[in-house]
Amino acid sequence: MTAALGAASVSLAAELTRTSTGEAVQFWVLAVVVVLGALGVVFSPKAVYSALFLAMTMLILAVFYIAQGALFLGVVQIVVYTGAVMMLFLFVLMLIGVDSADSLTEAIRGQRYAAVGLGLGFGVLLIAGIAHATLAVFVGFDTATGGNEAIVKLAQLIFNQYLWAFELTGALLITATLGAMVLAHRPRITKKLTQRDLSVARFRPDSPVPPTPLPASGVFARHNAVDVPARLPDGSPSELSVNKSLGGRRAVEAQDIIVEDTAITSESEDR
Questions:
Q1: What is the distance between the alpha carbons of residues 144 and 123, in angstroms, rounded to a whole number?
Q2: Contact present, 67 and 132 (Cβ < 8 Å)
């Protein structure tokens, strides 16, 4: 009798832990995609791409939960975590901003077709996971979890006892989103300057910023003190090479050095 019960227990455990071919294929395909998505979150050069990779990773985790029979946990993963990530994504767009030219340029050739193919494949895997979770019957699952009592109690806590807190939190997030939109999207009075416009303005004659770096203090002078002005090609001192805060220090000595250098240069040229 004991041996028969042991054999029955072993066969039941093997039946519960057995993985079907479709579930194994689904796991290995989605496992690769979720690892790539996690790496994309870390190594993406733009915050927008990182948010999209994070949303994809959380959606695939929800598919894993649903495929294992945790339907409520998968739905919460999509509604709460992925919804929060989309809110974070909206905050990133509103506060940081995205150049409109980036969205019109296809950085990688053929990425639109690849995105369509990956979307269709992900949809098929998602439908297969949901169908497997909802149609399959797990032996002993209701006994182990107590049926739907845990889900009913959790729903009562959210929608009965903590209903106002839940609704006020949602209203607070919506208000914060609208505030971010108002603060970030201000009307632009002037045209946004591009790199070409900045370069053209830098080389104009009336530009306050010189097109090339100025010589450092002490260059072509008798010593390299920071309060000694540099010498221009015509021999005159460059006032811009010395900070104005150092103007009162050793000013007389610097002028004497400049005059002496000018006299020596003139004598050498006469000879």
A1: 31
A2: yes
Q: Identify the domain containing residue 53 by its residue range.
A: 19-98+113-147
Domain shared by 55 and 142, yes or no = yes
**Which pLDDT tens digit goes with each residue over 61-119?**
888 888 887 888 888 888 777 777 677 776 766 666 655 444 555 566 777 788 788 88
Q: Which two tokens stand for residue 156?
A: 């009562």
What is d(CA 23, CA 128) in angstroms, rounded to the nearest whole number?
9
Q: How far is CA 168 from CA 45, 118, 156, 157, 223, in A?
A: 35, 38, 17, 15, 70
Residue 119 has which token pair? Answer: 């979307």
User: 25 is written with which tokens?
Assistant: 């294929």
Q: Would the CA dihedral through 4, 10, 13, 18 be positive or negative?
A: negative
Q: How many domains does the chain have?
A: 3
Kindly give, in sequence order, each residue whose CB lies less than 8 Å from that of residue 142, ignoring residues fewer than 6 positions away.
none
Same domain, yes or no, for 118 and 216? no
User: Both 181 and 203 in a single domain?
Assistant: no
The model's pTM is 0.39
Residue 13 belongs to a domain: no
Residue 86 maps to which CATH number? 1.20.120.1200
Give yes or no: residues 170 and 209 share one domain. no
User: In whole angstroms, how large is the CA radius of gyration of the chain?
Assistant: 35
Residue 181 burial class via C-beta count within 10 angstroms: exposed 0-12, middle 13-18, buried 19 and up: middle
What are residue 238's DSSP bridge partners?
230
Q: Where are the beta strands (DSSP E) in the chain?
A: 230-231, 237-238
Separation in Å, CA 199 to CA 193, 209, 211: 10, 11, 9
